[in-house]
């Protein structure tokens, strides 16, 4: 250990302690904190977040990071620390260009904007949120003018969430997908549909919790290195590969929601639990590319979880734990899991129409940053696109443009990563079947852990070390393409809907 | 706000942020952290605990505290801040006398001792723990030689947990109790006993959780300012009056344990939820006297919870939530709640023999610090006293001297506060009935909230502002005495056991 690395390591450990408690405070606020305790937790969160930012952007740390990027130091580092000092240097060069007072104003405006969004959504009234959205757009542009002057704003935003994926690349695959998917979706939507109403009934939330645990264990989630909890919206929160937490929400009248959320979040969690332990404590110890991360949750949720064979070995056990399901045959159950419907809410959409929800958002984000469409005109644009792609128009803004919180805190450019994840999945499925043979057969034999192991070894192990394009290249030995996903949809739904 | 107070307040807020995250880390480790995540959480806990101690004992803070103790500053402070600066001055004067290297050695030895205790308990082999216990005794004496030179060690220890209660006072009331209670206990134990075996069966843990929530609400626990969780041993953890958390443990074969733990911890929690809001953020905002705190948990658990009338308004609801109880009449149920038995494990003892468990520990602590009995001789002393007071001898050290963890981390002098709590309860019961009339009638009428309100107004509201002796004086207008508790036991159990 060189003296410079020793100093850097001590500083990094300290930063890691700070981010751990910031993470823990947020975990607690989402899962546990009672109503009246929220202000106290939030004040402590603000305190440590501010301290963290000061430590992270300090001259002292920046100097250490620069020193470790010098060749004679850099070459001695392990890949995890090389990644860390490279990433921090790049980020700090940018972040240190943001004036402190601007940062504070942006933070304050973001908090106000989130509050206004909540109010607007509850009132189903976009006009409450519009001025804040306008501000978020302006502040975002301003921030990028500091950090990435002269670069295309929307491309830079996309790179924040999925490094190396610019709009040229994304346009190409999204167009490819849209061309094939629009006609397929229209065919599906006009075909005869199953009767969802047979699933009306009461599904004991305590029993659903037991099913969640069964599903997670079955997939390969480690309860030695993870826990489950409840929250308003399901999410995954990792402290390290040794402590990865998933949450869920249990609806009394819906047995599917918590099952597919469990499988989805389980996919995120299995990723984080299986990163190379040598990366622990470095910036590469989880996956910072949202598309790649999402590809894993969606692979489990859709490619595996919505496959009839996934359920063959466990459907009896699920029925034992949740006896209300005994009324339904496996065929009825799985038919409902693959029920394709035009609907308004992205997070509740099936795997096919989900793509449309993202395409719409991607096009609107481009309208914002490329065509400078003002906030006030966005609801009309939103509704027009829903009519065009899904043939439906939201009754109000709450089930329209106000449904997602992403834009309220300035997370522009995030949405496309969801669809990128699905597009990667099509390619991963091809690669996996080339290596292991038919997924149908593996699942039917109850050998899902074989698939998990393949994902562990080919994707999870590397944490953030490989950029998204490198992941695709290494795993699939192919250029990124939406074709495999399209083929998967066409094969699957032609059979199901007898097209 | 004087400039000195302003500085002090900013420093105190910072300390409060630190203690909040230390508390949260510990809460998470007890309730949530998965097995493999424990080391990560513990490392962060150590980091912030060390930082906290450095901030708390810094010259800067000590100077601020001293300044605010000057009359011209002190008189301007609210009672909560007066208490805070007084307490901190006293504690800092002592704590700053502890050499840093001694403190570190003690901390390391304490960790080793706790580990050795766990190992010894699992192996039921006291010899593994004996050298560590010897060390804990030595370090404790050494620490008090720094902080309280020339004072009686055991009296000083007692004062750490129940300020103002020295062994002269405690000896007097414990003797008073023992004299009456020993013959009563012997009479009870030789009377005919109910048949506990009828309660054998399976009691759904999920249903028990629902009963817990019912009991807590019924007593007056606020779920807006509190939550429930699970842990190996039940405990209460308060972040402020706005966020007080209780845990429980649910045994499939025992419906009583979780119910009485819920009522017990609920008593602690209702205390903390009802401290004067003006004290929030000061050192007086919870109760730092363990005996007074325990008096409230034990008042709910024993005086109220083991009273037949407590259950009259809710037994039907409890049976609805936990249908396995429908087999038992209220009389059978309550009879088992008041089943007095000689048993080995303190935490599972009934309210009468519980007192004996504490008397034994109190006498052994005196043997350690006054008669200098070496650790190696303590198991024999322990077993001899169990034979003398309860007529039973533990089969091994795990159900004997190794059962409690208190001595493993040097918490000598803590045990007596449990019994002080019960003795206070006898007196509080008298005072409460003088004010409100018969507790039986209030409970039978389903008006337990009246009792809660009386406790809120007379005890909880003051947090730590009143010393234990002042609490007794203000609430009971009497000297401390064990007579009321004895009277309560005699009345109640003469009827139940038809003595």
Which sequence of SSEs, written as H and E, runs from N to C of chain A?
Answer: HHHHHHHHHHEEEHHHHHHHHHHHH
Specify the helix fraction band of chain A: 55-70%
Number of helices of chain A: 22
CATH architectural group of the largest domain in chain A? Orthogonal Bundle
- What's the count of strands of chain A? 3
Strand order in the largest sheet of chain A? 1-3-2
Largest interface: A-B, 33 and 33 residues
> CATH class of the largest domain in chain A, anyone?
Mainly Alpha
Low-confidence regions of chain A: none
CATH topology of the largest domain in chain A: Neurolysin, domain 3
Report the β-strand fraction of chain A as a percent range: under 5%
Radius of gyration of chain A: 23 Å
Sheet/helix structural class of chain A: mainly alpha
Largest sheet of chain A, in brief, is: 3 strands, mixed
Shape of chain A: globular
> How many structural domains are formed by the residues of chain A?
2
Q: If you average the pLDDT of chain A, what whole number results?
A: 97
Oligomeric state of the chains present here: homodimer
Pfam families (chains A, B): Peptidase_M32
GO molecular function (chains A, B): metal ion binding; metallocarboxypeptidase activity
Active site (chains A, B): 265
Family (chains A, B): Belongs to the peptidase M32 family.
How would you summarize this macromolecular structure in one to three sentences?
2 copies of one chain form a homodimer. By secondary structure, chain A is mainly α.
């Amino acid at each position: 250990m060189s003296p410079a690395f020793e100093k850097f390591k001590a500083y990094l450990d300290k930063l890691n302690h700070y981010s751990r408690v910031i993470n823990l405070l947020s975990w607690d606020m989402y899962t546990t904190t009672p109503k009246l305790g929220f202000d106290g937790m939030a004040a402590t969160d603000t305190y440590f977040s501010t301290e963290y930012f000061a430590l992270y952007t300090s001259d002292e740390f920046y100097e250490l990071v620069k020193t470790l990027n010098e060749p004679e130091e850099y070459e001695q580092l392990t890949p995890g620390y090389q990644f860390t000092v490279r990433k921090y240097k790049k980020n700090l060069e940018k972040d240190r260009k943001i004036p402190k007072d601007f940062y504070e104003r942006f933070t304050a405006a973001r908090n106000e904007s989130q509050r206004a969004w909540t109010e607007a959504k509850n009132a189903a009234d976009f006009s409450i949120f519009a001025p804040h959205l306008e501000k978020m757009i302006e502040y975002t542009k301003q921030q990028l003018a500091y950090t990435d002057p002269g670069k295309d704003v929307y491309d830079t935003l996309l790179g924040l969430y999925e490094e190396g994926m610019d709009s040229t690349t994304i346009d190409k695959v999204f167009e490819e997908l849209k061309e094939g998917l629009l006609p397929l979706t229209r065919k599906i939507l006009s075909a005869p549909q199953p009767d969802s109403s047979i699933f009306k009934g009461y599904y004991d939330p305590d029993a659903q919790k037991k099913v969640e645990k069964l599903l997670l264990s079955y997939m390969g989630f480690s309860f030695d290195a993870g826990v489950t909890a409840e929250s308003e919206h399901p999410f995954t929160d990792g402290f390290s590969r040794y402590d990865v937490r998933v949450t869920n929400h249990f609806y009394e009248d819906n047995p599917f929601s918590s099952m597919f959320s469990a499988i989805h979040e389980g996919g995120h969690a299995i990723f984080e639990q299986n990163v190379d332990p040598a990366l622990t404590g470095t910036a590469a110890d989880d996956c910072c590319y949202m598309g790649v991360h999402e590809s894993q949750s969606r692979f489990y949720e859709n490619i595996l979880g919505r496959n009839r064979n996934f359920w063959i070995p466990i459907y009896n056990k699920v029925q034992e734990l949740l006896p209300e399901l005994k009324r339904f045959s496996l065929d009825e159950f799985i038919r409902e899991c693959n029920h394709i419907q035009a609907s308004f809410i992205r997070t509740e959409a099936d795997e096919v129409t989900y793509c449309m929800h993202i395409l719409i958002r991607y096009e609107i984000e481009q309208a914002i940053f490329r065509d400078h469409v003002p906030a006030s005109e966005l609801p009309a644009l939103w509704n027009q696109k829903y009519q065009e792609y899904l043939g439906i128009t939201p009754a109000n803004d709450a089930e329209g443009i106000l449904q997602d919180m992403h834009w309220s805190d300035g997370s522009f450019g995030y949405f496309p990563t969801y669809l990128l994840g699905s597009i990667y999945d099509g390619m991963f499925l091809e690669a996996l079947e080339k290596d292991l043979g038919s997924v149908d057969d593996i699942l039917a034999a109850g050998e899902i852990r074989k698939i998990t192991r393949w994902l562990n070894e080919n994707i999870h192990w590397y944490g953030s070390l490989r950029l998204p394009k490198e992941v695709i290249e290494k795993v699939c030995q192919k250029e990124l393409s939406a074709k495999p996903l399209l083929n998967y949809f066409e094969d699957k739904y032609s059979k199901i809907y007898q097209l």
